[in-house]
Amino acid sequence: MIVTLKHIIEIMEMLAPKSLADGWDNVGVQVGHVDWPIRKILVALDPTNDVVSGAISEGADLLVTHHPLILRPLTGVNLGTPPGSTIALALESGLAIFAAHTNLDNAEGGVNSVLAQRFGLRDVTVLRARERVKEYKLVVFVPEGHEERVLDVLFRFGAGRIGAYENCSFRSRGIGTFRPGEKARPFIGEVNSITQANEYRVEARVSAQSLFKLINALQRVHPYEEMAYDIYPLHQTGAKDGLGRIGYVKQEVRLIDLARKIKETLDLDGVKIAGDPELLVKCVAVCSGSGSSLIQDFFSSDADVFVSGDLGYHDARMTEDLGKGLIDIGHFASERVIVDSLVLFLKKKIEENGWSVEIDSLKGERDPFKIIS
């Protein structure tokens, strides 16, 4: 089987659906075509000229990045400056570039979830929740002996995802009845005769975005001439997607000690803090990237400290006045954590599908800012 960019996009949709991206964002294919064959994938944070050159030198067919190469609409493609020079470099070498940005920030299991996990937070919830992707319960009736083929298609299209769990389904045995009409070509039974068949009822959750593609795929593998299925809309009871995360440390800790632990965990040269270094911290809010837009969400929450990047001077002053704390770890450090996590996710999905595709992170990517001491 030839694995194409389209196959990789379908996998990425399972983790970070395009529907979760903010309206101003440009996610998805930045360079390339969905039919391009993919044999090697590299993952990085930024699609800079150096990163793209590195991916090409390592023989990659696809570069998956967090930040988009093209964030704003182009008014021209100047080959002498980025992003025009980067686009030309990628096209000349047949390197596809794909970005998962705010959709990966918002997604459960995305950048913010990984950041909270790295800090060891417990009972984690979303800091600024967003409306969840509309979901349905899809129920398919299939004759005994064919249920595994149905389940395989369900899971390949991302059905059966509940929180951090995948491939969730339920099946029950029963007896189906039907009478094929004159023009029918039944898989089981005879025309004009009532037939009883041992069947399985197979059910799983599926996103609205995947629903009809999934049904079409199921109809191709289902043995019956007319596949019997039901679709039930699901009522969403809690948002698990959104910006930022908030959770609790295992044991109360001073702000200064928490900052030191985070510095060590992320292997940083330094971090900035605001607030009383002796502040006792139990509840922590985090936001990957630039966190200033969530500062009011932090202030109105139960969190004692906010860990993020690109925090402003006035953010720090207001935090002091409110008796809370800030830890600024920088934009790069707050998002670089997703690279290895994304490699593991893609590797798992590639292995599950039995594809021969190499996957790794691009080594040597560095924070553009340096600490001078």
Explained architecture:
The chain has 373 residues and is an alpha/beta fold. It folds into three domains: 5-104 and 335-361, 3-Layer(aba) Sandwich (Udp-n-acetylmuramoylalanyl-d-glutamate--2,6- Diaminopimelate Ligase, Chain: A, domain 1), CATH 3.40.1390; 111-130 and 241-329, NIF3 (NGG1p interacting factor 3)-like (Udp-n-acetylmuramoylalanyl-d-glutamate--2,6- Diaminopimelate Ligase, Chain: A, domain 1), CATH 3.40.1390; 135-233, Alpha-Beta Plaits. 31% of the residues lie in helices and 27% in strands. α2 packs parallel to α3 (84-93), α5 (111-118) packs across α11 (331-353) and α6 runs antiparallel to α7. The longest helix has 23 residues, at 331-353. The protein is globular. The chain starts with a helix and ends in a 12-residue tail after the last strand. The model has no long low-confidence stretch (mean pLDDT 95).
Gyration radius, to the nearest Å? 24 Å
Would you give the CATH topology of the largest domain?
A: Udp-n-acetylmuramoylalanyl-d-glutamate--2,6- Diaminopimelate Ligase, Chain: A, domain 1
Summed over residues and divided by their number, the pLDDT gives a mean of 95
Principal-axes shape call: globular
CATH architecture of the largest domain: 3-Layer(aba) Sandwich
Helicity level, as a percent range? 25-40%
Quick one: biggest sheet?
Answer: 6 strands, mixed
Features of this protein?
373 residues; alpha/beta; Udp-n-acetylmuramoylalanyl-d-glutamate--2,6- Diaminopimelate Ligase, Chain: A, domain 1; Alpha-Beta Plaits; 3 domains; 5-stranded mixed sheet; 15 strands
